[in-house]
Specification:
By secondary structure, the chain is of the alpha/beta class. Helix content is 47%, strand content 13%. The strands form four sheets. Strands 5-6-7-2-1-8-9-13-14 form a nine-stranded mixed β-sheet, with helices on both faces. Helix 1 packs across helix 2 (22-40). It binds alpha-D-glucopyranose.
């Protein structure tokens, strides 16, 4: 091994391995793992191949995972140690690819990992964003966004010689393909293909993350999810989406033909999974390219329908994309005749049922659908194209991502579609990479589990159940407690180093890490903090000291989410300055929460906060990650929490709040009035009013907190006040339980032992058996 490393060092840096600095070592190691992965690659031409199309891939750092998957981590660590280095130091200089946002993008990455581990052929296709989502910083207790230029540093991307011309109505761009080899525990490797343009220009970004949205030649591949609060922003998203799918279609058809198959056999040799609606233009684009190559329109529709499958990740209407017809006509005129014909097919079949049509007029009733409304919803009678509708009609499968979510799709959101295509609908409960989120990032836990039950669980996660035989073994439970404690110390050290905030590892680590959205209800957790604070001031202390840890980015244009971050940061500062309160309660919002941070926080979590308004969180995957690492969940009966509760049993999860059915009813009947709860409950009123108190406003921008306060008592669209009292009650019970260490560790062990179902390996097998058949 050392010979290989020396050779590579000579080649890249003209010197031997031991003379390299950390960044150079990173480059050499990443080069080595890429080389080894590329050698692994096998192309079985006669098997069907999956193309996983996604606007985002939240892949996280790659080096450690690659070394582990290649089976050379220990060897490399030894060599590094001989040179006075640790792998952690090298990892610290590795940039985290900034190609994703939240659960949807992380799911895509877990899927690539599992596909590769199961030796299934499946590549990802996406965009090479230069500046990513954004990097989060805090100033005056508010979120500020700055670019995240991850490509400037050494990274693992490989530039290929594949180029394509992508045509838009008003311009033509040359696309270049970059590859990232993906490792898993299997013997093959898959590839993430990321398309880019050579004319992208980071220097047009000024003043945070602002730039000229019209300058497509320069801005196309700069940001993931650029601000779409105005028409130019929405147009940029259409440019990006078409760019992605046009390149994907070229790639898919080229590989098909290179493997000696005819275009007519597309569905036999390829399957395209459409990850949410962002890549749904792949449908008309594939039809366009097939017909251009001589296939009749009807046949092209049939082939494409048999090739594509669609995953829905949310029932929030704001995420089910609808593009103005006129915008599509301007940006991608080549798709318009196809979209029109697809629409005709549907309107001829279902003339009366307008909700099934692809091209529709915007009805006035969209006005109130969401609290972060987009202006175009309120325009009357403009024609819009419903991307999800197109994806459902012209693909072979539609799936939800947890049982409850799929049920809601069938019975509610998509019920008209379910009526006509019951056979297309199925559930595929999400899963996570156990490798990344425990075996490699919480090695101490994984090694101990191996000592107890052998390492069979790494191939078959259901074997974690065998841990149940230790449920009454105090020695084992104490060891698990010790491992948790060590993880908490690691996290505390890291936070001290990077954020200069001290966390006491004897406190309960209560963790809510996820994007910031009102439906996820970080504001309810903040109200819990306030309630606890007010009680402490009255001499009523929590049963055990608790540290509430948040990690979340808010979309730059989502004012209410940023106001909630502001509230949390103000609370953090208030308590930092109050020695007495700090003995019982701490709050921290970590800066720029990302996958790297997640891998450090998750092993240290005692409590996993999964408190979305029931019916709104399609699945959640952080819930699975923390469960796997022995945290106990407090949550609503929402998303995959429902299935977690089934696996661990009601005694090992803390459930509160109104059910999905009750919530859906409240929306239907307009039956929720937050003001009533506020007026009729003193504790709720006190907590809510504290948001605009003098004490807090010392640290705050009053206008932001006033807006939040006003919203909570007049609207509260995601019903934080509805469940607040129940939440406080149940959370305090859980905290009390923590004082019985054996009982708490038992719950923790039950959670680990029953997490097997939530491995992405299982999810991928489900997709493969029912949809992909690779
Ligand atoms: C979206 C959903 C989340 C789900 C994820 C992956 O981010 O909001 O609930 O877990 O997609 O499906």
């Amino acid at each position: 091994m050392i010979n290989n490393l020396n050779q590579l060092s000579e080649k890249i840096y003209n010197t031997d391995f031991k003379s390299l600095d950390n960044e150079q070592i990173y480059k050499v190691l990443s080069e080595l793992s890429n080389q080894m992965l590329l050698q692994r690659k096998q192309n079985s031409k006669d098997k069907r191949k999956l193309y996983y199309l996604s606007a985002e891939f939240l892949i996280g750092k790659l080096l450690k995972n690659n070394l582990e998957n290649l089976g050379i981590r220990d060897e490399i660590e030894k060599i590094l140690l001989e040179n006075g280095k640790t792998l952690a130091q090298i990892e610290a200089v590795e940039p985290e690819p900034s190609l994703g946002n939240g659960g949807l993008g992380r799911l895509a990455s877990c899927f690539l990992d599992s596909l590769t581990s199961l030796d299934l052929k499946g590549d990802g296709v996406g965009i090479n964003y230069h500046l990513g989502l954004f990097k989060q910083t805090f100033k005056n207790n508010s979120q500020l966004e700055i670019p995240n230029p991850w490509l400037e540093k050494s990274n693992a991307l490989i530039k290929t010689d594949v180029t394509n011309i992508v045509k838009f109505g008003d311009l033509e761009l040359k696309a270049v393909m970059y590859d990232l080899p993906i490792s898993g525990s299997g013997q093959t490797s898959n590839t993430l293909h990321l398309f880019d343009i050579e004319t992208a220009d980071e220097s047009i970004v000024k003043d945070g993350i602002n730039f000229d949205k019209k300058d497509i030649k320069k801005n196309l591949t700069l940001f993931l999810y650029p601000d779409d609060s105005d028409l130019d922003g929405r147009h940029l998203r259409i440019y990006q989406q078409y760019f992605m799918v046009c390149n994907a279609a070229y790639l898919i058809l080229k590989e098909l033909q290179d493997n000696g198959h005819s275009l007519d056999e597309l569905d036999k040799y390829a399957v395209v999974q459409i990850n949410d609606t962002h890549p749904s233009m792949i449908i008309p684009e594939l039809i366009r390219q097939l017909t251009q190559n001589g296939i009749a329109f009807e046949r092209a529709v049939e082939i494409v329908t048999n090739t594509c499958a669609y995953t829905n990740h949310t029932i929030l209407l704001e995420a089910l994309e609808k593009w103005p017809y006129e915008s599509l006509k301007q940006i991608v005129p080549q798709l318009i005749p196809i979209i029109n014909k697809l629409n005709e097919i549907i309107t001829e079949k279902y003339p009366e049922n307008e909700s099934l049509h692809i091209v529709r007029n915007v009805p006035m009733k969209f006005k109130k659908v969401s609290s972060i409304n987009k202006p175009y919803y309120i325009l009357k009678n403009i024609k819009i194209v419903h991307m999800a509708t197109m994806a459902i009609h012209f693909s072979k499968s539609t799936n939800g991502v947890a049982q409850l979510h799929t049920d809601i799709l069938k019975e509610d959101t998509l019920k008209d579609f379910y009526k006509i295509y019951p056979e297309k609908f199925s559930n595929k409960t999400n899963g996570i990479s156990f490798r990344r989120f425990m075996y490699y990032s919480n090695r101490q836990l994984s090694d101990y589990i191996t000592k107890l039950i052998g390492d069979g669980y790494k191939k078959d996660s259901n074997k974690l159940k065998e841990l149940m035989k230790y449920i009454d073994d105090e020695k084992v439970l104490n060891k698990f407690a010790q491992i948790k404690k060590d993880a908490k110390i690691n996290l505390s050290n890291y936070i001290k180093e990077t954020e200069n905030i001290y966390l006491d590892d004897s406190y309960i680590f209560d963790v809510q890490i996820k994007r910031l959205h009102e439906y996820k209800r970080q504001q309810m957790n903040a109200l819990y903090v306030i309630d606890t604070y007010l009680k402490i001031k009255k001499g009523i202390y929590p049963a055990h000291p608790i540290c509430v840890i948040f990690g979340a980015k808010a979309a730059p244009a989502y004012t209410m989410a940023k106001n909630i971050i502001h509230l949390i940061l103000c609370l953090q500062q208030l308590i930092e300055n109050d020695k007495d309160v700090q003995k019982h309660l701490k709050v921290i919002m970590v800066t720029n929460y990302n996958v790297d941070y997640a891998e450090k926080i998750i092993p240290a979590a005692d409590i996993s906060e999964q408190i979305s308004l029931a019916s709104k969180e399609a699945s959640g995957t952080g819930n699975m990650k923390m469960m796997l690492n022995g945290a106990v969940t407090i949550g609503t009966m929402d998303g995959a929490n429902v299935e977690i509760a089934e696996y661990v049993g009601k005694e090992n999860i803390y459930i509160f709040g109104k059910s999905a059915q009750e919530v859906i009813k409240l929306y239907e009947t307009n039956g929720y009035k937050s003001s009533e709860i506020y007026e009729n409950n003193q504790a709720v009123k006190d907590a809510v009013d504290f948001i605009i108190s003098d004490e807090l406003n010392k640290y705050a921008d009053l206008t932001k907190l006033e807006a939040l306060h006003y919203d909570l008592i007049t609207k509260d669209w995601f019903m934080a006040l509805l469940d607040l009292q129940d939440y406080i009650k149940v959370k305090n019970k859980l905290i009390e339980k923590y004082n019985d260490p054996i009982a708490y560790r038992k719950m923790s062990l039950v959670n680990i032992a029953n997490s097997g179902y939530f491995s992405a390996d299982r999810t991928i097998q489900d997709y493969n058996n029912d949809i992909w058949k690779l």
